[in-house]
Amino acid sequence: MLRFSSAVTALTVALCLPASVAHAQFPQPNGGDLERGVLPAHWFSQQPKCMEIPEWQVHEYNPNFFILRQSPCTDYEKPFIFLFFGKEKAMLVDTGSRNGNLVPALQLTVKNWLARNKRTSIPLIVTHTHEHEDHTWGDKGLQAMNDPAIPVTFVPSDVEATKKFFGIANWPTGIGHVDLGGRVLDIVPIPGHSAVSIAFYDHNTGVLLSGDTMYPGRLYVVDFPAFQASVERLVKFTEGKPIANVLGNHIEETSTPFLDYPVGTMYQPNEHELAMSRGALLELEDALISMHGTPKRLALRDFSVWPAGPGFESAAERAAYKKHVQEEKAKMWDHTQP
After folding, report:
1. Residue 229 in contact with residue 192, Cβ under 8 Å?
2. Strands 304-307 and 184-189
């Protein structure tokens, strides 16, 4: 039991905190009304032999939300993509990187879902976290899929198409929405890593998709003022909302604090977990503010701020990257060998 002075101090602190901080997001620690889900203990990228790794690892977070990860053997970027199912529509966020060959894995996943739900078809919206090639390479394959069970509505990754489809009146300060039927996602513009970066907030699961703006790894900042403003806006957007997991597009960090994998790494034993929290978002905001408008590299426990562009990468780093990529490919069939 608190002594009187401690109780008064605690009450004073609580009264001084903003409402979103002072009050729990749910009254009891029982999961609230969120749809629960699980993440895998490890991803196949932690396995050393490419013969044993499928082109896509499909993980069922829960019966209506799937996470797919591209094989490191097809591209060291090994991005994640996300598949949501509503009662009326499904939505795929990103289409993967080079040599991904997404269509067979996607068709199998959707048709298994249809069979389990005793349905014959579902319309699919294909959209993106941003326009970079490691998240849009599979676009042409999806556009050419022509599967009557999965009619596709394709949303190009450009500002005007994104604004129009999601109903974002003002870019980047407005909020868009998409209703899949009993499942609404909010769309938050977050340019800075790229011109068309957006985040997705799923009301059903409390999952926030943060794209390449935040994930366990190197956060490449192309436009520093826009990036900082976007992170601050995302912090504001998430105030008072239940955030179960913040899921980004990559894992580049090891499970050892402050230590990442070199650029170009395929085999990643002892990876950092994919999921991050709103606390990490607050930490990122604080790190950016501390730079006072002058971008610089800064390694934090679970990620690094990594300004991109001229002046931020040395010739020695570029040479080391190219050498590492070659070494990784040479060992792709058995990374246990020296």
Report:
1. yes
2. unpaired
